[in-house]
Amino acid sequence: MLRSTVLPLVDEGALGFRGEDQQPMDDLSELSRDLIAVRDSRDRAAFGRLFDHFAPRLKAMMLRGGLRDGTAEDVVQDVMLAVWHKAGQFDPHRADAAGWIYGIARNRRIDMARRRPLAQPDEMPEIESLEPDAAQIIALQQEARHLADALARLAPEQAEALRAAYFDDIPHSRISEMTGLPLGTIKSRIRLGLERLRHELRTIAP
């Protein structure tokens, strides 16, 4: 079972406050604010929230990648330990918490695949490629362009609500607090935005 006891005993002042890259906290997702709390003040409660959020998602990611249950849990523990130790490198101007942590997980999985000993010829499994080929890269770039074009066609308030909810992973209630709008209005904008986005994607996609 995954446990947040991955947290080591460290000097509470090991990492200092990095004021030079601060930005308004209201502009950040809750996950990014928790990661900044770990980065700047070694906040164990914030780390616990990050662990509870990401551990099951990272395990599912590893299982989809072909790892066995026990191995997947070991990798997740290793990733979250790296999050604690490397939190000082987190820069919210360059990536949000989810993108930064998933990047660590992807690198761990690649390292693990490279260290895996070769099997005997008669039992060598077919190893899944970890790097996208040219066709996959082009397809991803096209999908990203289609999504950007579709978002640009939405009403600004709908596009803003969708970005906050799905790109920044901000709960609906938090969006309501940040904007000062009723929760029902936020949910309505997200629902209408999704409906419109689906329509626009069908129009744009070949």
What does this structure look like?
With 206 residues, this protein is an all-alpha fold. The chain folds into two domains: 4-123, Rna Polymerase Sigma Factor, Chain: A, CATH 1.10.1740; 134-204, Orthogonal Bundle (Arc Repressor Mutant, subunit A). Helix content is 64%, strand content 0%. It is built from eight helices and no strands.
Topology summary:
Blueprint lengths: L29 H12 L2 H21 L4 H18 L10 H19 L18 H19 L3 H12 L4 H8 L3 H22 L2
What is shown here, in short?
The chain has 206 residues and is an all-alpha fold.
Tell me how many strands there are. 0
What structural category characterises the helix and strand content? mainly alpha
Report the major sheet.
none
Helix run count: 8
Give average pLDDT, whole number.
Answer: 76
Please report which band the strand proportion falls in: under 5%, 5-15%, 15-25%, 25-35%, 35-45% or over 45%.
under 5%
Give the terminus-to-terminus CA distance. 45 Å
User: What's the level 1 CATH class of the largest domain?
Assistant: Mainly Alpha
The fourth-level CATH homologous superfamily of the largest domain is RNA polymerase sigma factor, region 2, helix turn helix motif
CATH topology of the largest domain: Rna Polymerase Sigma Factor, Chain: A
Provide the succession of SSEs: HHHHHHHH
Q: Which term fits the overall shape?
A: globular
What is the correct CATH architecture of the largest domain? Orthogonal Bundle
Total of domains: 2
- Low-pLDDT windows of residues: 9-21, 118-122
Please give the share of residues in helix.
Answer: 55-70%
- CA radius of gyration is 20 Å
